[in-house]
Amino acid sequence: MAAAKEVSQEEGEFKIMVGGKEIGTEKYVVALMGDSASSSSLLDFKNPANAEQKVRMESKLDMDGQYRPRSYRLSTDIGGKKGAIAGSFSPNQVMFEYSSGAAPTKKGLLVGKDYTILDTNLFHHFVFLVRLFKFDSKESVQRFEVVIPQEADSGVLKISESNRETLVVNGKKIEAHHLQVDSGALVIHLWVDKQRILHKISVPSSGIEVLRVS
Question: pLDDT for 33-49, tens place per residue?
């Protein structure tokens, strides 16, 4: 009889703030079992530009053990208008189907061998990059290809470790690695502990701050 595969699961919740004001939350689960990984999330927030507009996003992502996507599904509800994105993946090519009440549209992207998903507003996707980042690497900058389904785009992120800092999150002191993620257009800051748990995300140019609350 084959031995049962060990399942590693991380559950968390982020508080999302813009300009110092809380606008929403994201609850997520990331699971790793053998050569497979998966994530699911529920994101609720109010549009900072229009507080009357509520946004809900539900995601489901299946991946291999290196966080390369196998299938992706995103359901959105923006002010009552529902939509969906479905992603399919084959060697060096990604295809997304977009549905929003009208006839579905499809868009494709060419990609390299190794890439992961980093979709707009889904902050738990940074967990994949944190797990892939090699803290013991001699390279000062590591490069990761990502695809962004909601923007039908892809790109390369440059990630480097800035320093180590002591964070205070929910009244607790946490010794954290401070990573800088450079997309070319944005610089995003991540703080992660020695267990590779992501505790804080900051996008200074947008006034966005995301804090882990559980």
Answer: 999 999 999 999 999 88
Architecture (CATH level 2) of domain 7-212: Clam (2.50)
What are the structural domain ranges in the chain? 7-212
Cα–Cα distance between 203 and 188 in angstroms, integer? 5
pLDDT per residue as tens digits for the range 172-212: 899 999 999 999 999 999 999 999 999 999 999 999 999 99
DSSP output for the chain: -PPPPPEEEEEEEEEEEETTEEEEEEEEEEEEETTEEEEEEEEEEEETTEEEEEEEEEEEEEEETT--EEEEEEEEEETTEEEEEEEEEETTEEEEEEESSSS-EEEEEE--SS-EE--TT-GGGHHHHHHH--TT-S-SSEEEEEEEGGGTEEEEEEEEEEEEEEEEETTEEEEEEEEEEE-SS-EEEEEE-TT--EEEEEEGGGTEEEEE--
What are the pLDDT digits (tens) for 100-142? Answer: 877 899 999 999 999 999 999 999 999 999 999 999 888 999 9
CA angle 103, 107, 112 (to 5 degrees): 160
Distance CA 125, CA 153 (A): 16
pTM of the full structure: 0.93
